[in-house]
Amino acid sequence: MSLQRPARPLPPAPAQVVETQSLEGLAAIRDEGVTLALYQRQPDPAILSFLRKAGAFAGQRGIIPAQDGSAAIHRLLDATGLPDETERKLLAADLEQLVGTFCGLTGASAARLRVDHITNDACRFFHFDYVALRMLCTYDGAGTQWLPEEALDRSGLGKGDNRLVCRDRRAIQHLRPWWVGVMKGAHWPGNDAPLVHRSPPLTPGQSRVFVAIDPADPKDCDCGC
């Protein structure tokens, strides 16, 4: 009679989402199995008040160097029409820090920064992005929504019907205002499960101040996630 060794327990599956309390903690997105890293920061009241007072502005995109990006960011903000006030300088400094963090994660010498005032839900279908990494932050308004793997059916993607993708609406997650998220897309090496997400539905009169940061030469969608 031969005795069989007991089977070794399988290691726990890597977390799909990692929550952190610092920008440095976003480096967890590079870990295997992690598709979203979240920095759960608090709003800056001065910047938030400034954006709400300024109201609608023209969305802009620009290439920002990883080092000394302040001048490029101020030129981008000039183009939006946001008034050059003390609070805008605070916003520019925050954006420069986010760009620097993103470039540190990707090893890129520059990033493409998008700053937008969104008034529709044109990107309302669940999807994933054709990038390696993307950083998102909603400064004001509803944040990006995403689905945990157990709540989605990937075979329904690209068919223009969220009901084919989302198995349980109660499982829909969202980034809170000011949270910084870094997500893996389809171009991350070896990633066969890029994060599935969408823009939050907006009703007439609602808006979002939204920021996305990509590598400077991405081959991706320009959605308003």
Structure, described:
The chain has one domain (17-215): Jelly Rolls. The longest helix is centred in the middle third of the chain and has 21 residues, at 86-106. Helix content is 19%, strand content 22%. The protein is built from 3 helices and 10 strands. The model is unreliable at 1-14 and 218-222 (pLDDT under 50). The chain has a 7-stranded mixed β-sheet with strand order 1-2-8-5-10-4-3. With 225 residues, the protein is an alpha+beta fold.
What is the fold's blueprint, element by element?
Blueprint: E1 17-20, E2 36-39, H1 45-54, E3 60-65, H2 70-80, H3 86-106, E4 110-118, E5 133-140, E6 145-146, E7 173-174, E8 180-184, E9 197-198, E10 208-215
Parallel strand pairs: 1-2
Antiparallel strand pairs: 2-8, 3-4, 4-10, 5-8, 5-10, 6-7, 6-9
